[in-house]
Amino acid sequence: MKKFLSVLSVCTFLLALVGMAINHFPAQAQAVAAYVPHGAAFITLMVGTGGSALACVVVPITDIVLDDCPNPGGLTDLHVIRRRDIETFPAAGADKVTIATAIVPKAGCGFAKWEFAQDSGEVNHKSGGDAGNQSITHELNVYVPRGAASTDAVIQAALNGDFVVIGRDSNGNLRIVGDERRGVKFEHDYKSGKKGGDKNGTDFKFSGEGFTHVPYYYTAAIPLLEASSGS
């Protein structure tokens, strides 16, 4: 009996080592499995019993690397369109996060450029919800200085709107907040300030919940609204 338990312990230890190897080296494990009889089935079994997410691996962990290039924060420009004014919203590519085909607005429509204060813009996304029911929240924030009738007219028109927004980050990446199925809502918070050194302006916020993807990377041209078309 003791001999049997000893053999069982050794087998358990070896299986644990194999499981760790599969978890830490998924690509190599898949390659080896192709040359071993029943290798794929064995890996599937190990994935199921060990709780590994190997079967769902899309990007190998080795693709997440330290990059020593400059990495500034913030946004440099912002473009806004109402979701109802989009004729065609292209699908993301094979990576599920990049759109390389241009968005097509309806006739007479396009993205309007919104100006904002330098070093005040940001794109955020985060996961939320209970396990098994998680989704992603999109958020884009900018600050517009001064109180002005022209700014307030835009605010008035944007309330209760459903938008798709493109922001360019300081690394040159275009990020899309919202998509063809679910837009982002607009919120604002204006403060005149109390003292001469206080900020006098409006915080703009676009946000939405329940997305199944991060804000897309967009590599095509932005179809702009003609100046004569209004905003």
Structure commentary:
The structure is a single chain. The chain is α+β, with helices and mostly antiparallel strands and 231 residues long. The protein has helices at residues 2-24, 26-33, 39-50, 149-158, and strands spanning 75-82, 86-88, 98-99, 104-105, 112-114, 122-128, 135-145, 163-169, 174-177, 185-191, 201-211, 216-218. It is globular. Residues 1-29 form the signal peptide.
Quick one: how many beta strands? 12
Radius of gyration: 25 Å
> What share of residues is helical?
10-25%
The SSE string, one letter per element, is HHHEEEEEEEHEEEEE
Key traits:
alpha+beta, four-stranded antiparallel beta sheet, 12 strands
Summed up, what is this model?
This protein is 23% helix and 29% strand.
Chain-wise SSE layout:
Elements: H1 2-24, H2 26-33, H3 39-50, E1 75-82, E2 86-88, E3 98-99, E4 104-105, E5 112-114, E6 122-128, E7 135-145, H4 149-158, E8 163-169, E9 174-177, E10 185-191, E11 201-211, E12 216-218
Parallel strand pairs: 3-12
Antiparallel strand pairs: 1-5, 1-8, 2-4, 6-7, 7-11, 8-9, 9-12, 10-11
